[in-house]
Amino acid sequence: MSTIIGTETTAKVYTRPREKLIAYWTVTLLLAAAVMLSGIGQLMQYGGNAELVKNLVYPLYILTILGIWKVLGVITLVVPGFPRIKEWVHAGIFFLMTGAALSHTFAKDYGDYGFILSFRFHMLHSISPRGRCVRRAANFKEVVKTKADPSYHQ
């Protein structure tokens, strides 16, 4: 008499709802566009960037430094992968926005309150689940356990 041992397979796949994915990329691309345009404007010293920096009593070369970092950060945000680096880019944008807000506040140069809107925009983006944490690669792979596996019974 022969006995057939059955095998049970369980697969768990992490899926993201389509609406959340669309919302995430919409907000990400809007943030990336705003940061990219300001970075290019700072690199070219376009508009009132030079006067603004002089009014805040910063040296003009800060525009080149900020512009390069903004452009590199945007490229990192829109390229797929690199979740740990994207986390650092979000932190950098947060420090950039808070630094700009504080610089304007201390210089009593409130402008048209645009920095408050951009700060809030980034805060909304950073508290979204994908922007807030880096998931481990194991969460995206299939998890297969069988009855024949000794660790299944423990």
Describe this structure in words.
The chain crosses the membrane at residues 21-44, 56-79, 88-107. This is DoxX family protein. It is a multi-pass membrane protein. It is found in: Membrane. The protein has one domain (18-131). It has six helices and no strands. The two termini are 29 Å apart. It has 154 residues and is mainly α. 12% of the residues are buried.
Contiguous runs where pLDDT drops below 50 for at least 5 residues: 131-149
Q: Strand tally, please?
A: 0
Helical fraction equals 55-70%
Fraction of residues in β-strands: under 5%
The major beta sheet can be summarized as: none
The sequence of SSEs as H and E is HHHHHH
What average pLDDT do the residues reach?
A: 76
- Count of spatially separate domains: 1
How far the N terminus sits from the C terminus, by CA atoms, comes to 29 Å
Class from helix and strand fractions:
mainly alpha
Shape: elongated
Q: State Rg.
A: 24 Å
